[in-house]
Amino acid sequence: MKKNDIKVGVIQAGFSYFLWGLLPIYWKFLHQVNAQEILANRIFWSFIFMVIVLICTKKWSLFVRTLKGFAENKKQMYALTIASVLISINWFVYIWAVNSGHMIEASLGYYINPLISILLGMMVLKEKLTVYQYVSFILAAIGVVIITVSHGVFPWIAISLALSFGLYGLAKKLINVESSVGLTLETMVLAPIAAIYMIYLAFTGTNSLFQAGWGTDLLLMGAGAATAIPLLYFAKGAQKIPLSLLGFLQYLSPTLTLILGVFVYHEHFSKIQLVSFIFIWSALAIYSLSKTKLFPQREVKQPKQNGAAL
User: Fold this and answer.
1) Rounded to an integer, what distance in angstroms lies between the CA atom of residue 6 and that of residue 156?
2) Hey, which residues does 130 pair with through a beta bridge?
3) How confident is the model over 96-135, as pLDDT tens digits?
4) pTM for the predicted model, two decimal places
5) Domain boundaries, the chain
6) In 3-state terms, what secondary structure has residue 299?
7) How many CB atoms lie within 10 A of CB 201?
């Protein structure tokens, strides 16, 4: 791989994480709209935007061929449906959290997401973990326990975001399609439901689209582009750079969200939260460095099991 390709890849992937980190500002501009309507518009206009992208990039025929293949492969069709539902849950929780003053906890969710992926890989895919990955998972678990015990409330926003995105990634492993085609398919599955909900709001007179002013209309319709553009840049960048480097870049997004929550929107960031985040940041540092040559790779031997796994 050429050095110039890596530089371009870093810029593209970094730009995508930068946009994701600043996305809360976009949702804050729509604070007067309920999260359900924002989600419906995000799904519907993402599908419309991606159809336009496929036509402009001459990938429509690839989309049609892929769709026909899915119709004949029930396993991939089920995986696509599950992936669509999971990413929609993730989007809804994130939008609600941002506009309800929980940006710090939302950022926590994306910090622990890689560690949730480790757990899912171990439990579902039977992947072998290194000593460092076990240590990082334990440190992150301690951080979550500290927040739970200190506040007396389970951090459901963070865990919901991490789990939904982690399971989404697991479902995506069964769907091996081109990135723009994949996003179009995922939004297509739920676009009819989103459209029906938007029509229902219009008939009951409770809609914000085309009722709350042209600024709100543009923001709601622009949610499609705001969703798709960072994902497309991410897909381009991920193809050009090593996975370990991509792993470091991914923390840019929750870091920007955390900074916005604390310094721009003045959410309370307690000492207990700081201690918890330090545990999680330490876990991420160990996890990221474990994928480099700095740390020798030592797998933990799993005990032998008799019989088939349930």
Assistant:
1) 37
2) 299
3) 999 999 999 999 888 888 778 777 777 777 767 778 878 8
4) 0.85
5) 3-289
6) strand
7) 18
